[in-house]
Amino acid sequence: MTEPHDVAADHLREAVTGIWCAVLGADHAGPEDDFFAEGGDSALAVEAALSLRAVTGTDLEIDILYQYPRFGRLLSVLTDPRPEREERPLTPAEELLWFVERLRPGTPVYHIAALYRFPGRIDIPRLRTALDTLVAGHPALRRGFEAPGRAVTAARATVSCRWLDGRGLPPETLRELIDEHARLPFDLARPPLLRAVAVERGDDGDLLLLTVHHLVCDGGSLAILEDALSELYTDGGAGPAPATAAIPEGARAVNEESRAYWRRALAGCPRTIALPHDLPRPAALDNTGDVHRLVCPEDLVADMARFAARERVSPFMTWIVAYVAGLVAQTGERDVVIGIAASSRTAEQRGEIGMFVDPVPLRLTIPDGTTARDLARQVRSTTAAALAHRGVPFPAIVDDLGPGGDPTRAPLVQAGLSYLDVAGSALRFDGQRAVRDLLPTGTAKYELLWAVTRQADRTIAELEYLSGLFTAEHAAKLHAAMLAAAGAAFANPDAPLRLPERPIHAGRRPLPELIRLRAGQRPDAPAIRDHGVELTYAQLDERAVAIATGLRAAGLRRGDVVAVPMARGADAICSYLGIFYAGCAYLPVDQGQPAQRLRAALDGVADAALVTAASPPMPAGLRVLRLDRLLDDPGRVADPGVPVRVTGDDAAYLMSTSGTTGRPKTVVVPHRAISRLVPDAAGLEYRRDDRVAHLCNPAFDAAILEIWGALGAGAVLAIGNREDVSSPARLRAFLDEHRISVLGLPTALLNTVIDFAPDALGDLRLLIFGGEKADEQRLARLLAHRPPASVVNVYGPTENTTVSTLQQVTAAGLDPGPLPIGRPVSGSTAYALGPDGEPVPPGAEGELYVGGDGLARGYHGNPALTAASFVPNPFGPGRLYRTGDRVRMLLDGTFFFRGRTDDQVKVRGFRVELGEIEHTLRSLPGVDDAVVAARAAADSAELLAWVTGTRDAAGLTEDLRTRLPAYMIPAVAVADRLPLNANGKVDRAALLASLDAPGTAAEAPPEDPADDAVTEAVAALWRESLGLARARPDDSFVALGGHSIKALRLLARLDEELGVTVDLADFLADPTMRALVAAVHHLQPTTERKQP
Amino acid sequence: MSEDEYDVVVNDEEQYSIWAAGRAVPAGWQTVGVRGSREKCLEHIETVWTDMRPRSLRLAMGEH
């Protein structure tokens, strides 16, 4: 083979010869001449290197003469006719890694560090030559990466190969040195991204550490590298002919059909996986990580081999089954997305070193009863389809899903799996076979990565995890448990996959303990902002200690119940925490309810009440303690028993809900049920740097999320008052003022905000809504226009602690059909069962039963009702709560709400038993019978009552107001008789139908003609918001069925149409149309009247 | 037909419930020997289930 003649190369040869001779004072240079033998020393070597840099115009290594002391080799290296550099854009896979490197430069997260233990010695000069020859033959090993994202392959590169004397070094010191070398950052712009350290250890046998960057190598390439290096070292050969150019692997055309496949395959998939970590998720995670390593048991490997043969799946697919079985057993997740590293190596690339793996997301669904065999079939088809559509870069797949997910976690894939078979390859120097270990880099690429390596004699499973989430002990337990679950799956491939025995929540502390911890961690961080009052965590803790001390001094003990009749505010929060610290449970009391119902809620339930001056009067006989006295007690003696230690089984709070018998039902909720939800249930994670809005009435369980989500995370709880939610504009001002990042809203209120101030929500990190059926069209509008980073629809009864299921809402996942209520929240289970108690087939309607750690203890003082509602769980340990909700479950485990099995309704997010209202009506004097029905209205359900007897409607309504909260007051009509259906029961449907019949409305006085444009405009909006045909000046908005949310809509529409902001509180003080018109005139003196 | 017959059952936490007679009782639960209508079973539970705290909590609180 003749070298092409090149004039420039001749000049370069002359120049190099000239430098050699000048530096050494020689008159001639022969190919075998050695720089140091000819009189060169370290100073001369540097001088020569600098001169060579000048003539070659390249950034040569300053120790180039040490690398190539012989003139002939030096000359050939320097005058290599290959082009200096070849550039190309990054491949999608390189781009991902490059992005991480740019984000966190200098971390070894993508280092592949292989430590080889040889029985004997390594010959360092031979190793150096072999490494350089290797690099010459593999373009990837001469490749560097430059901003803003170019891969540059240099014509030549030399491998840094250090020698270390490890003789006599203590093993720990040696290990530290090796780790340090393995983790030393590469300068990505300067190839090779491969380096070596040889450690001489005398009789112990030498070590070789090869560190290579994942940008130019992968697991498969490492095996190729080992084989090639073995051959070069042992035979000393020239190695393969140098490949001249990198095979252009970049810039594949993205196939639209493939893109569509991914959109379809991942539609509505969960964006995050609820991994069972034991540390609370910090606000910001770095990639510090560790590895837990296990040798897979022989019988598992044998079972898997048999299984793979029988099911005709590859070993890799079998490990996917194992991983998913392990994850399901630990998380209870039924719809998981994992990342696999799929090889993109083409036939021509066989034997080439490089980065030939793409991360590919795999979505697998695990309905009840799925067996290993079922899963294997799914894995086979899903993997095949995924690989067939592999060309789409991962970021494009994520983009196509639309906004959503958790911006603080890796998009879509947080759990990865890699599998590598290296049984056939090894590093062998002169027949000495080295034992290889891959060293942990002290980092983790995913939250959890399972790296399985099949070696010649064993299979190694390494669980790489983020240290910010998992402790080493927990990771070890988790790894063993996952492997055991996989073992069980393959030992009995026709048995349903194992589910969590008890949903894992290791390390979940009861709230009082967690908040104590927060106060210790960041005592001066703000905990509560309540209209000018700011409490730090230390102050909150201090007040709670004072309250607990006072409660205990008053004789209250662990397990006692303390009522808190206080409105939303700092006092209430301090009281709740103080009650926790005393080992007691709190009972928040809705101040808006009539005295009689309040008494019923407390009677026999509360052991004491903790009150402020603003609290309503407490029933006689109840022990009453004043909050201010507990806080400012000069005689207080420190109580070493405070805070009282509680377990997850201790009651945390009690909450009254509507009951059919006329008495409220009081749900008792243990600490475990809250801890499974806050602060870090998947999809509802609260972060330390969040500002969480507290707008919910504390007597309703949505407040649990707000209060304890914020405080459990160490975040700021910003408390809003009534005015802050009195109009969308006010709400926007509140959100802006407090820079709120997490907001929960009842669905009906969210609808109003979307209609009138959709931009108010754009800065939220997390928007949570629920309580009633969602309005898909409004959500689509919200998502189309600067949506919050994450939008979540939650569903759940108080008996399963606020959230049973949740659904991430994304534009991409928003189908034209109804919005699902989603899948069970972490730590919870849900089943759609038929009347026989057996699961109904996917798609069919059944009653929703929920279980898991969120379950309440039961109903206070009501064993029979508890026993009837909380039933044995035939699918796992513990009980299931019968929700009374009718649902449909899809194959992927997503639930849709279909209605109720009974007469419970939701009115503006409040849960109402029609039976309670009927019971109350029948108990009124002069009432013979009563029936209450709910009718769907524009925003929510509307309650209507028909009563027979001697009373008139106005009087009945008055009486009801003293017995029921405002949201439970129906519009009352007096009837002659109540129609019965064929079963002899009152026919609600017939009554509802009669409303729409003509002639039911009494003869109404004619509407007053509007006397001006404002009155006309107000009247039009009034009619619109109430859905009525007429509007008269003395009509009361409230009496006509207008409630606060309808009022909000009306006032928002007024703002929109007339540009005036009427205060909700002012309006409700006199909710007549006349007053409203006056208010508008007052606020807007320059109305159209000026220009008649 | 025993469709409307129930058994009173109790679990390891000494929580009571009812279970359709004839259906296999889920693991962790035992019948207590009371069978009858739903109302009869619930009445029985109303009289025997006097401390509704789960057993592990009672033990954690140093009681039995």
UniProtKB/TrEMBL annotation, chain A:
Keyword Phosphoprotein carried by entry: yes
Pfam families from the UniProt entry: AMP-binding (PF00501), Condensation (PF00668), PP-binding (PF00550)
Domain of life, per lineage: Bacteria
Cofactor: pantetheine 4'-phosphate
Keywords tagged on the record: Phosphopantetheine, Phosphoprotein
Domain Carrier: 7-82, 1009-1084
SUPFAM superfamilies reported for this sequence: Acetyl-CoA synthetase-like (SSF56801), ACP-like (SSF47336), CoA-dependent acyltransferases (SSF52777)
PANTHER family, per the entry: FATTY ACID SYNTHASE (PTHR45527:SF1), NONRIBOSOMAL PEPTIDE SYNTHETASE (PTHR45527)
Record-given protein name: Amino acid adenylation domain-containing protein
From TrEMBL, chain B:
Entries under SUPFAM superfamilies matching the protein: MbtH-like
Protein name listed in UniProt: MbtH family NRPS accessory protein
Residues of the MbtH-like domain: 1-47
TM annotation in the entry: none
InterPro entries xrefs: MbtH-like_dom, MbtH-like_sf, MLP_fam
